[in-house]
Structures are given as C-alpha cells and as structure tokens.
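Private note to self, pasted from the team thread so I don't lose it. Backbone tokens:
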C-alpha cells in the first residue's frame, strides 16, 4: 500500500490530538501576548502548548504507569501512548527511569511553564531566571529519557520505520531540544542587554 498506508487510524488520531493541543496553545498564547513583541508572543504560544502537553499527555502517562501500564489501558490518551510505544516500547510498560523523569516533567516543568507565562505577562523581574531554569529542566529531561537507552544500544527504539523514527522520535522530541535552546539564547541576549545598560548607566554617574 506504500508509505502512506503506515499512517493508520491510531497514528492519525494521535497526530490530531497533538494538533488540537497545539491549536489550544496557540490560541491561549496569542491571547495572552496581545500587544507584545513577536518573540514574547512566540514564547507564550510555546509555553501554553508546553504546559498542556506536560499536564494532559504526560500527566496521563504518569497516571497510567503508576496504576498499571499503558499496554493494558483503554481510552483516547492510552491509545496515543500505545501508538508512541510503537516507536519506543519502554512507554508501554512500567519503566522506572521514564516514570521518575516524567513525574518531574509533569509537576516541575508544567508548573514552571505556567509560572513563566505569568512572569512574561506581568513583566516580572525574575522572568529570565524562570526561563533558564525551565529550559535546563527540559533539556535535562530529554537527555535522561534517551541517554540510558542509547548506552544500551537502543533495544527499545524502532528506527526502521520512517514514521516512528523521523516523526515520533526525532521530530516530537527534537522540538523540546530546539525551542528550549532558542529560549536560552533569548535569555542570554536579554541579560546581556540589561548588563550593558546598567554598565553604561553606572559610568554616567561616576
């Protein structure tokens, strides 16, 4: 049937759910970012989407993993994780490393994302401290999710299927490397501007 036939009903449903969360994140972020610059609007869109993913999708995974496992569960969110489990089999059954990382991701990263939304909207002085903290947590979570598997030769990862490898593993996880990296660069630039401004102001009064 060709490569297109690999995108079955389960895969399509999972992608639609992800798209719905993205649409919700965009709507919330753009509403909160009205009157702000493009960089802050983009950051708010990402943070709203990030929080939704952490609380809705990953929160569901943590619950399913703690009370049983994904493979034996039913429902829309369970079917999404079953579909992702075709790319990374560790998500189908209780993996203590994944559950430990996801617990922090849901409760710490999700909360930090909401806190950062508040800090941006209210223009709080601690905005970039929270932004850097969140980005480091996101990058560390990604590293701890995959590095143990890589060190063991990736026995649970399905890299032979284009959909599972390039879309599920590379794209969806790569976004959580790329965007936090960009936000870290933004914080670096803004903190550098603040430092230069304070330095010039200090020289004027000497």
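Design output:
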């Amino acid at each position: 049937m060709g490569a297109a036939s690999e995108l079955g009903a389960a895969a399509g449903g999972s992608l639609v759910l992800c798209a719905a969360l993205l649409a919700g994140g965009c709507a919330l972020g753009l509403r909160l970012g009205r009157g702000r610059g493009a960089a802050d609007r983009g950051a708010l869109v990402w943070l709203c989407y990030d929080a939704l993913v952490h609380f809705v999708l990953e929160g569901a995974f943590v619950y399913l993993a703690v009370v049983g496992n994904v493979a034996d569960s039913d429902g829309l969110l369970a079917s999404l994780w079953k579909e992702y489990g075709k790319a990374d089999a560790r998500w189908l059954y209780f993996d203590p490393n994944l559950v430990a990382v996801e617990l922090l991701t849901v409760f710490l990263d999700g909360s930090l994302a909401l806190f950062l939304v508040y800090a941006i909207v209210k223009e709080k002085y601690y905005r970039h401290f929270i932004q850097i903290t969140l980005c480091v947590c996101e990058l560390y979570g990604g590293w701890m999710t995959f590095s143990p598997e890589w060190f063991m030769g990736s026995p649970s990862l399905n890299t032979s299927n284009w959909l599972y490898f390039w879309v599920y593993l590379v794209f969806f996880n790569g976004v959580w490397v790329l965007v936090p990296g960009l936000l870290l660069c933004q914080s670096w630039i803004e903190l550098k501007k603040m430092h230069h401004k304070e330095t010039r102001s200090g020289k004027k009064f000497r």
